[in-house]
Design goal:
The chain has 214 residues and is α/β, with parallel strands linked by helices. It is built from nine helices and five strands, in the order ααααβαβαβαβαβα. The protein has two domains: 3-83, Methionine synthase domain (Methyltransferase, Methionine Synthase (B12-binding Domains), Chain A, domain 1, Orthogonal Bundle), CATH 1.10.1240.10; 94-212, Cobalamin-binding domain (Rossmann fold), CATH 3.40.50.280. It is elongated and about 55 Å long. The two termini are 25 Å apart.
C-alpha cells in the first residue's frame, strides 16, 4: 500500500469506529503534510461513511452506530469546509426531504438527511406529516434538484403518488428527480407512480445520487 492508501484507510477506519478524536488527528496530520484535503474527504472519510451505510443496510451495524459515525463525519466535513475556498467541495444539488401527510415517523428520514449532507447534498428537511403540495412549493422555492418522500404506512403511500402527479402537472419532471422510500415502499410502487428512484435505505439513497455525478 502507498502512503496515500494508508492515509485513506486510517480515515475510513476512524469513521467506521466513530472515533472523532482519531478522525480530526488524521485530518491535522494530513494538512501538515500538505495532503489534498478534498481527496482525503472523498476517498478516505467518505469511503468509511459509505461502508457504515452498507453495513447498516445489511444489519451488521445498528442505528446508534450509524448516528455516531454520521456525527463524526459531519465534524470532519465541517472542519474541511472551513479550510476550503467556496466551491472547493463538490456540491451535489439541493434536496427537499420529508415524511408524507398522515405519517409521523421520521427516524429513517433523519438518517437519510444526515448521510446526504455528509455526501455534499444540501438537504432541507421539511418534517413529517407534510402534504404533497408542500413538497412542490418548497422545491420550487429552493429550485431543488431532488424531492425525497418517505411513507411508513401503506395508507400514506398514495401521497407519494400525489407528489408525482403534481411534479408532472407543474412541469417539473425534467428538472427534479423524485426519490421514494419507507418500509412498505417497493421498486414496483416507484415504477407504478413514476418516481425516478426507489431508495430502500440511506446508503442506497447516497449511492443513487453519487451515481448521477460519476
Amino acid at each position: 500500500m502507498t502512503d496515500k492508501d494508508i492515509l485513506f484507510k486510517q480515515a475510513a477506519d476512524a469513521i467506521i469506529e466513530s472515533d472523532e478524536d482519531a478522525a480530526l488527528a488524521i485530518l491535522r496530520e494530513a494538512e501538515a503534510d500538505g495532503a489534498d484535503l478534498i481527496d482525503l474527504l472523498s476517498n478516505g472519510f467518505s469511503a468509511g461513511m459509505r461502508e457504515v451505510g452498507d453495513r447498516f443496510g445489511m444489519g451488521e451495524l445498528f442505528l446508534p452506530e450509524l448516528i455516531f459515525a454520521s456525527e463524526v463525519m459531519k465534524a470532519v466535513t465541517n472542519e474541511i469546509e472551513s479550510k476550503m475556498e467556496d466551491g472547493a467541495i463538490q456540491k451535489k444539488g439541493v434536496m427537499v426531504l420529508g415524511t408524507v401527510a398522515g405519517d409521523v415517523h421520521d427516524i429513517g428520514k433523519g438518517i437519510v438527511a444526515s448521510l446526504l449532507k455528509t455526501s455534499g447534498v444540501e438537504v432541507y428537511d421539511i418534517g413529517r406529516e407534510v402534504p404533497a403540495e408542500e413538497f412542490i412549493k418548497k422545491a420550487k422555492e429552493l429550485n431543488a434538484d431532488f424531492i425525497g418522500s418517505s411513507a411508513l404506512l401503506t395508507t400514506t403511500m398514495t401521497e407519494q403518488e400525489t407528489i408525482e402527479k403534481l411534479v408532472v402537472k407543474e412541469g417539473m419532471k425534467d428538472k427534479v428527480k423524485t426519490l421514494v422510500g419507507g418500509a412498505p415502499v417497493t421498486q414496483r410502487w416507484a415504477d407504478k407512480i413514476g418516481a425516478d428512484a426507489y431508495c430502500e435505505d440511506a446508503a442506497v439513497t447516497v449511492r443513487y445520487i453519487n451515481s448521477l455525478f460519476e
